[in-house]
Amino acid sequence: MFLALWYYLRGYVMIKAKGFSAERFMNMATFRGVYLWDIAQDGVGMTMKAAGGSLPLLEACAEKTGCGLEILGWGGLPAFLRRFRSRQAWTAGLLLFALGLYGLSSFVWVVEVEGNERLSTEEILSACKEMGLCPGAWKGHVDTQAVTNGLLEGFGDISWVSVSIKGTDVTVKLAETIEKAEMVDKETPCHIIANADGVVLQITAERGTPMVAAGDVVKKGDILISSEILIGLEGEQQHREYVAAEGAVTARIWQRLAEEMPLQYEEKVYGGKEKENNSLIVAEKELDLIHPNSGEEWERSPIFEKPLALGDFTLPLKWKKELWKSYEMVAKSRTAEEAKALLEENLRKKAENLLSTYGTIEEMTVRYAEYADSVRGEAEIVMAERIGEKRQLQKESIENDTTEKEREVANGTI
Amino acid sequence: MGIRKNVTEALELPKEIMLGLPLISFVGREEVTIENYKGILEYSEETVRVGTMAGVVRLQGRGLCLKQLTAECMVVTGSVESMEFLS
Fold first, then answer.
1. I need a surface site. Which of A326, A392, A398, B43 has the fewest CB within 10 A?
2. Segments forming the whole domain that contains residue B33
3. What is the ipTM of this complex?
4. Is residue B5 part of a domain?
């Protein structure tokens, strides 16, 4: 194997030995240290290969043994290169190719981010871009250490970063810090206030003083559960303290929603034609060379979009495949009754979207107004909903209060 | 020769080196390696005769080809049908 490679690189000669004493010729040549290989019978003579430099020795052997020696040709790398000596353009092309390959491979083609869970890939990529690491950047200008430090400084959530350049791919591996548990602030004093007008249905105060009772009418901004609590037995000296109020207040609230529905409308009717369309995405630009007839209206839905790669080598190209469905806009009309039914459905959906997880719709009444070409629906919705909202106390007011309180306490003791 | 052989056998030395005997190895029937040969006596696609210290070795087969030929070792490829020791 290595011998064959060695003789290929050094160059070899293909010869033909003719005559009755070809065996003697071979014996003599091998005895003198010439390596012969691929010996095969060819009619009256034998063809064989031998190292190029041993030709004078072979000629001497042939003369001594009385064999006819014929050179069939030269092989190996030197002979291969000799053939290209006259092909200058070809050689130039080879050199240009090598240079092009070297040049193109000294740029970053793909940046990949691994290990991010909460941080989005785009965020990290844009941060990398600011530090000079983006597809198209010259590898010599990419300072991986600086990018690593920059990312660690820029994102508090990252605990470890490794930026590695492998070929034309840059991989940014990172580890995120452990997520901080969302702390329920139990220290900062706050009230619970109403975020809507309504009638209180139920109030449960975990901390703080309830200011309203079931059946009370409240306005937006009213304090429902106060931060202030009185400590001390009744009749004795009491003093005030401020806590973070906590509790749930459910109230009946009213909401008005309106929607209009035209009687004449247009609807998409699919023509039944379905075509798959392939396009190439180069540097964020879509290259759609062959696509269905643009005279018709087409609805596009993506099938897939994947980057093209040669083995492990990712190219900066993406292949996008879409399904195109032809459609036409057809004018249609509906009766007022149909429009009303649709309106009620839409309004109910809208109202449900407004509700929180605890809310329910108690009642919904819709009034309709019919016009020449449309129907207008106005809904009045009664909902049971939590209306509590935390509002921090103004710091100064607490301080004023406390100083007042202290003064009171001081007066009391005097 | 007798003493040499006895000593080699007694000391369990490799015979192909001590006695100059050929070492012939087959890979299936498509490749035969003959080491320690003396010279080629005849070569054609059907017959190869090789002189060795153990006598003349004759390989018969079809499409025989000398793949490698050096002073110590030769490799014959093709489809070998038989090998005989002549004389």
1. A392
2. 21-86
3. 0.84
4. no
